[in-house]
Amino acid sequence: MTLEEIFATIVGHTRDILPGLDDHAFQFTDSLRELGANSIDRSEVVMLTLESLSLKAPMIEFAKAENMGELATLLHARL
Amino acid sequence: MHAAERTPIVVSGIGITASIGQGRRDFTAALLAGEHRFAAMRRPGRQKPPAADDVAAPFIGAEIADLRMPDAIAAAKLRNLSWSAQVALATLHEAWEDAGLDGVDPRRIGLIVGGSNVQQRELALSQAKYQDRVEFLRPTHAMTFMDTDLCGVCSEVFGIRGLAITVGGASASGQLAAIQAIEAVRSGQVDVCIALGALMDLSFFECQAFRSLGAMGSDRFAREPALACRPFDRDRDGFIFGEACGAIVIRRAADATRTPYAELKGWAMAWDANRNPNPSLEGETAVIRGALAMAGLLADAIDYVNPHGTASVVGDETELAALRACGLDRAYINATKSLVGHGLSAAGMVELIAVMLQMQAGRLHPSRNLDNPIDAGFRWVGATAIDHVVERALNMSMGFGGINTAICLQRG
């Protein structure tokens, strides 16, 4: 799976979790926090993405991501 | 304290959701028409997974067909809501609007949710889904698995800041919530207290256990769901489950901004010191006499009884014996569970509401399947509704583990 495909997966789950982002043009530099996700929302996005990727990895590994692009990169490195 | 010295406590708002109807108007119409929705249950997680060697009939119950969620709640786009929480929100919204609570100081409003372990089906579905891949379990399971999530969800949506707790009393939980809410208002802890009987969301695990225990019917009418639920009838063989949720707004009469449905005149709770499901004549007579004494009423003053009446073989007989022992065999009596089934945690609240809606309608609803009452000496409302203006009623609840409750109401 490419980095872009992983990013698209994160975007899809972000739209599921956070209402009102259907028309938002997501960028790698977007921050989930700045888009309005609280810590519970962010954990849900990460977990749903891990499930979609069938990637069994500790959530804590992804906490250091500063934006959605970094999150995609960290996930990509674990595949 | 003498009854006359107490500040009158009233019900000034009602919300109701049940299989036969959502909202006061539809529910009352269905109740008086004697409608029902008993069938083999279809909600995911209610029936055992198919097995080749299993010849048992499907579990019968009455399920809510389509829940209408008020726009104000739908707009909040709440996620990860259990079925019990969704129904609680819709039901509480109706009661809230009915009582006109928007202008009340939120720090003076309380919520008491009756029921414990009410989200069993959701838990069973989650456990089945993640059984072999628990790593992917939704993090929010950590907050939603607790019944107090209903308190969190409802208090957030309605801005309740005074008090929000759950109370558990098995099948008397709904009435226990009402009693605790009355006490919260009477003590001055809050000015308004909402009591909610939560929807008990059974999974097939609980259905199987209830059936094995002999509490849940119906082996006798396994292929005739419409005949399965028959409280106080000679052919009853246990309770039939029914999804339901009810909410009432309790406040001092002096604070009510609308004509109350009823004044709550007396209430009582008694425990049997018995962990088991079996009923107790002593416990039941104690709460009947306790509620009447607190209301300052003699049995003759009660013109309608809404019994617990689950269709339990022993429970129904014990309840009638208790009513007779207390001189309540001359009041009208019907069986709300014959129409809506047994809501377990919700039952006591749904039936309290049924009393008040019948008071308002000036009619008493029919009892379904009461073909041969186990005691013909009572004043049964049979197959058709009758005109009767209830002035003073008694409502009973009992639950596993030895809890008995009763509430005495006077028309508002």
Protein traits:
heterodimer, A: 79 residues, mainly alpha, Non-ribosomal Peptide Synthetase Peptidyl Carrier Protein, Chain A, 52% helix, globular, B: 412 residues, alpha/beta, Peroxisomal Thiolase, Chain A, domain 1, 2 domains
Word description of this protein:
The complex is a heterodimer of chains A (79) and B (412). With 79 residues, chain A is mainly alpha-helical. Chain A has a single domain, classed as ACP-like (Non-ribosomal Peptide Synthetase Peptidyl Carrier Protein, Chain A, Orthogonal Bundle), CATH 1.10.1200. Helices cover 52% and strands 0% of the residues of chain A. In chain A, helix 1 crosses helix 2 and helix 1 packs across helix 3. Chain A is globular. Chain B has two domains: 7-255, Peroxisomal Thiolase, Chain A, domain 1 (3-Layer(aba) Sandwich); 262-411, Thiolase/Chalcone synthase (Peroxisomal Thiolase, Chain A, domain 1), CATH 3.40.47.10. Chain B has 13 helices and 17 strands. In chain B, the strands form three sheets. In chain B, strands 1, 2, 5, 6, 7, 9, 10, 11, 12, 14, 16 and 17 form a twelve-stranded mixed β-sheet that branches. Chain B has a three-stranded mixed β-sheet with strand order 3-4-8. In chain B, helix 1 (24-33) crosses helix 13 (347-361). Classes of the chains: A mainly alpha (79), B alpha/beta (412). The interface between A and B is small, with 11 and 10 residues.
Concise structural overview:
The complex is a heterodimer of chains A (79) and B (412). By secondary structure, chain A is mostly helical. In chain A, 52% of the residues lie in helices and 0% in strands.
For the biggest sheet of chain B, the summary is: 12 strands, mixed
Q: Which band does the percent of strand residues of chain A land in? A: under 5%
Strand-and-helix sequence of chain A, N→C? Answer: HHH
**Number of strand segments of chain A:** 0
- What do the pLDDT scores of chain A average to? 94
Shape of chain A: globular
Uncertain residue segments of chain B = none
Distance between the termini of chain A: 8 Å
**Most extensive interface, chain pair and sizes:** A-B, 11 and 10 residues
Q: What's the CATH C level of the largest domain in chain B?
A: Alpha Beta
Q: Give the overall form of chain B.
A: globular
